[in-house]
Amino acid sequence: MTQSENYPMIAKTMAELEDVLAEELIALGANDVEIGTRMVSFTGDKRLMYKANVHCRTALRILKPIYNFKAENADEVYDALKQINWEDYLSLDKTFSIDAVVFSHIFNHSKFVAYKVKDAIADWFADRYEKRPSVSVTNPDIVFNIHVAHNKCTLSLDSSGESLHKRGYRIAQTEAPLNEVLAAGMILKSGWRGESVFVDPMCGSGTLLIEAAMIALGIPPGIHRQSFGFEKWNDFDEELFSEVYNDDSGSREFSHRIVGSDISPKAIAICEKNVRNAGLKKYIDLSVKPFQQYVEAPAPHGVLITNPPYGERIKVEELSELYSMIGERLKHVFTGYNAYILSYKKESFDSIGLKHSRRFFLFNGALECEMREYEIFSGKRDDRPKKEDFREKRERSDASHYERNSKEGYRRSKRAEESDEAKPKREFRPKREHEAEKPRREFRRDINDDKADKSFRPRGRSFGAESSSGKRPYEADKKPRDHKRGNR
């Protein structure tokens, strides 16, 4: 297949981030963009597939469907897959794994479907060579994805390899860190693109701060990754990927500050390591500081986004006091700001004591959360000055967004102003002015690891002359260049 040929692809994401991902794909040049359940389908060429993996902040995986069929039982799955010429995608010297996603009463367990796919592949090679490729669960060369919805089956190649939320900059973490894709989604939903100061007063390991800096500077989220799945494909175009990887045309100037703080010195120490590893130290100011000790905002206007504790490890009374303090600090210190708080208990939001202007339904792991927006102003709401900023063109109507439920069937009690029935697949179109807003086990490294303070240099990639000095390119105001694929 040549570079210029278009083919269908699927970008997987988290529930309620489908609209943001669709906008990202359109900006990259995707065609036929349609929103589904925790996924966005689109068409494009090989260049776009590479770009989507490197540039999409809210994508978890980019899949390339290669075979569609129907099956009423396991034998039919096996028979259908035995018809594929597997040498187009796999060889005896490469390892593989199967990722199965099943929504069907026909099959009791997704692992059963995965075993049938594995058997079909192994038997196909055994029939021809009396040998079979090996399965690797931990580090496969090729990952196949089989998706079953009732009797409709789609076999895809996983072009990403490891989930795209594993950016490559995190070398240490606090307890229950925020998923990178969720953090980027929160920022993108807020509308902030670097036009003002960004504050996270409960920053933990710094995920929101780092994602915000990368957004403001136009740094691709995949730039720190060691590898992508498509690099092991038979048709991998190294020259094309190098061109995509080293394209810095999206870089931007950022003249404001990103400010992070936390009550925990340990959290700030971890955050500093991650920020340094991402090459963003010059853009992010960190301090050990409880939220309640803020007596002055970093700037007259800005955006504050934070993910406070939810209450799993603290008492109800303490949780109420915490959120009450958040509301009090917002009201008295952060006037002129738009604040976004992520939580999942209504009681916590009630304790803030401020009226929200919008809310977004999001999922933090299995927790069904909300991110509420608070426009902090002095005086009466109707007396607040009109500001010509990045929010001026956005319609404040919440009608559809407040009650938008995920199409996979998640329901929220006492919020059903709209029908809970699944909506049909629809073609995506970007929002226009004054249009209503519609509304994993983490890689862990011990923070005492003696490698934690060393500069990160992706294996097999060269970032130019400064890579030998141990400096990150962004610390020298340079974008990564001269990507080279080394031996892996």
TrEMBL record:
CDD domains: THUMP_AdoMetMT (cd11715). The keyword Methyltransferase applies. Its EC number is 2.1.1.264. It comes from bioreactor metagenome. This is Ribosomal RNA large subunit methyltransferase K/L. GO terms for molecular function: RNA binding; rRNA (guanine-N2-)-methyltransferase activity; rRNA (guanine-N7-)-methyltransferase activity. SMART domains: THUMP. Residues 382-488 are annotated as: Disordered. Residues 382-456 have a biased composition (Basic and acidic residues). Residues 48-159 form the THUMP domain. The gene is rlmL_24. It is an enzyme of class 2 (transferase). Gene3D superfamilies: 3.30.2130.30, Vaccinia Virus protein VP39. Keywords: Methyltransferase, Transferase. InterPro entries: RlmKL-like_Mtase, RlmKL-like_Mtase_CS, RlmL_1st, SAM-dependent_MTases_sf, THUMP_dom. Pfam families: RlmL_1st, THUMP, UPF0020.
